[in-house]
Amino acid sequence: DIQMTQSPSTLSASVGDRVTITCRASQRISTWLAWYQHKPGTAPKLLIYRASRLESGVPSRFSGSGSGTEFTLTISSLQPDDFATYYCQQYDRYASFGPGTKLEIK
Amino acid sequence: QVQLVQSGSEVQRPGASVKVSCKASGYTFSSHAINWVRQAPGQGLEWMGWISVFNGNTIYAQKFQGRVTLTTDTSTNTAYMDLRSLKSDDTAMYYCARDRDSSGYHFDNWGQGTLVTVSS
Q1: Sign of CA dihedral B84, B49, A65, A23
Q2: Is the minimum CB–CB distance between B103 and chain A shorter than 8 Å?
Q3: What local confidence, expressed as pLDDT, does residue A33 receive?
């Protein structure tokens, strides 16, 4: 199985900040990586697929990069709606998720 | 617009089974596989399995092999997840989620979730 890790587990930031979340895979997954935003009481929302492709309708302040085993999600200027938990997910071999990064208001 | 609408909350005893449904609309049902993902209280997301609506092929996460069955009914555009021999740690929110594209196993549309509580 491919194990995914994320750092940090919790991130405190302010509106307008630029934030970066890191995701690592236990083996090389090329660019078969997605990022999701998840808020309590709602379904997860796909933000990024193929490591860097922005899903339709997702604001351009979200961006993804990386390949192989190390990936990042960047939010260029935090908005109030962005405070949520973010998960990376590999789909090189079936699917597995990282443990999540909770983005909190500072 | 694409919608996945799941059945309502369930309370089951340990050892029982639960069957959750996921009704799709707004797209050609057979053109996208359906996955099931769960989230236990305070935990992260966990992928359970995948079913091709086109031909019924299934792939299950090793953890759930032998205990879960995924099916679809193309006459009603509905997918089903059947989980047997329930334990207390199966208490979770269960989601169906559509494959975004033929690459598979990444999800562009999700159901609203079904809470399954396992308790004696």
Answers
A1: positive
A2: yes
A3: 98
Residues in B touching A97 (Cβ below 8 Å): 44-47
Name residue B6's amino acid.
Q
Asked if A66 and A51 touch (Cβ cutoff 8 Å), the reply is yes
- In this structure, chain A runs to a length of 106
User: CB of A58 within 8 Å of any CB in chain B?
Assistant: no
Going by C-beta distance under 8 Å and a sequence separation of 6 or more, which residues neighbour residue B4? B22, B23, B24, B96, B97, B98, B109, B110, B111, B112
Please tell me the distance from the alpha carbon of residue A11 to that of residue B15, in angstroms, as a whole number: 40
Residues 6+ apart with CB under 8 A from B109: B2, B3, B4, B97, B98
pLDDT in tens, B78-89: 999 999 999 999
**Partner residue opposite B113 with nearest CB, options A43, A94, A98:** A43
